[in-house]
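pinging the channel bc i need a second pair of eyes. not urgent but kinda urgent?? the chain im working w is below, pasted from the shared doc
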Amino acid sequence: MKQSPDAQHLDAVLRSSALVAGGFMGDDARRVAEVIDADAGELFHLGIERTQLADRMREITCEATSALGTWATVGEHLEAMVDEVRGATPCPWPHEGHFPKRVTTVKRTDTGQTIRWADLNIHMIDAHGFFEGEGSFFRLEPADLISVLF
């Protein structure tokens, strides 16, 4: 099926490195819509909605921010730390939205699993169902994210 001009433009923006080093798609050859559909299917299979996931990520980021760059206990078997720098990153979708340049790292103390995300990841998951493409620097695998956070 042929992509609309808007979908083609979004695909080009997400593949470029103008907003983020390496682009949001990494080396993923699929179209953006295919990436989103695949991740939505995985979430459905795992029984978690993207809004639940984004809410939990926001909650952890908020709790860890108060620890001022040190590890904070944010739940049973979970520690998190937030690193923040000046500035904001815009959402690549065509709407207003700028998000702090902040990275949250979460570690499970019982399994040693670690995962990290930027504030923009939370927004893109919540608003667009986008976990980034395979091979991108901030790609979040839905199953890995769920196994760490829940």
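so Residues 5-149 form one domain. and The chain has five helices and four strands. — does that match what u expected or am i reading it wrong
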